[in-house]
Amino acid sequence: MAILLILNFVGNGFPPIIRNNARPIIYTILSLTFLILLKLWTSGRSNPAERPLHGKVVLLTGGTSGIGAQTALQLAQRGAQLVLLTQSPDSDPFLVEYIQDLRERTNNNLIYAEQVNLADFHSIRKFATKWIDNAPPRRLDMVILCAATLTPPGGKRKESEEGIEETWMVNFLGNFHLLAILSPALRVQPIDRDVRIIIPTCSAYIGSPSLKQELTKQNWSPGKAYARSKLAMNVFGQAFQKHLDVYKRPDGGIMNTRVIFVDPGLARTPSTRRWLTRGSLWGLGLYLVGYIFPWFLLKSPSMAAQSILYAAMDGNLGRLPGGKLIKECMEVDFARGEVKDEEVAKKLWEESDALIEKVEKAQAKRRATEKARDEAKAQQQKAQEALAAKKKKEQEQKDEVQGLVDAIKKGKEQEKQKAAKTKKKTKAK
């Protein structure tokens, strides 16, 4: 049958229906080809590096949604031991169900959660000091910082209790504080261990205001705040790599911890959706109606995670110096010279250190005041309870004595009545 169709096509050419509609058919084929190629291009490259991760211990922030969730899934499937640093406590029903589901999907029971709120310095210190306060030092192969926040366009500026802008706090200062405390744990890993700190970034840093310029309340905007936090994280990451490199290991070996930056690209994540919809229901409705456009133009979270997986698994990155930027599973250069500016990095580090120290002192003072107040309240309550117990005991004693008195009176009354009855009987006789 196929041979007859081919012979008929060779002898007679295209059928009339095709010849009469040749132009629409050609346009349709070209359009479909363009859309398919566009989708393949916007989807990005898949991770070409592959290796098992059994025994690797990974600390991962932002591992419950978006790109972080896909990263957690892929790492767990390869056998990594995951410690998810989450804002919610490990007893949260959603988190418990999420981890159980992840364990079942990956057949990997080495997945745990620890509460670390990147908007709270005390929460970060409490976890990090517990992690490093261990002898011998705990194994740590990878730290992946996927957690981030943003304010949608038109949104109001938010601050923490200490007056720190939310985007700057979560996207930069929280990560700065976490890595600073974990630094000893990273430096003491055995020389044969390939330790990596993976910092996802965003191309938005290219349009960020310079870190030399202060971002005040007057010139603040959601876009500037987000871009500036990403630029600061890039600058700090380069400085942190130098901080690690100058450390002299007791065994005389070279530093085996490397900072790797990753630009995963634009993806259909909750954060991106929140930005595109401006955090409104009307925006969400338009997003859903025109979903075909973000589907074509934006990556899926799974494809966006491919560059992070490449940074985690590529063997060459474990042998080269740190500070590399990975995009589409290949090394690229930073688009801002400020990223490697040592003066900017030094000023950023010193100011961040001073701010964190100031805030932590204020937090410690407030906690001490609250503790003293709670203790005083507890003592007062205890004294009140003791007084109430004493009064109750005294009342019980009074009631007991009164009961005895009443019993005695009742007994005497009964004796009198009995004596009176006896007297009446005697008289009657």
Automatic annotation (TrEMBL):
Residues 366-429 are annotated as: Disordered. The keyword Kinase does not apply. InterPro entries: NAD(P)-bd_dom_sf, SDR_fam. Residues 419-429 have a biased composition (Basic residues). Residues 366-377, 393-418 have a biased composition (Basic and acidic residues). The chain crosses the membrane at residues 281-298. One of its GO terms (molecular function) is oxidoreductase activity. Keywords: Membrane, Oxidoreductase, Transmembrane, Transmembrane helix. Residues 378-387 have a biased composition (Low complexity). Belongs to the short-chain dehydrogenases/reductases (SDR) family. This is Uncharacterized protein. It comes from Cylindrodendrum hubeiense.
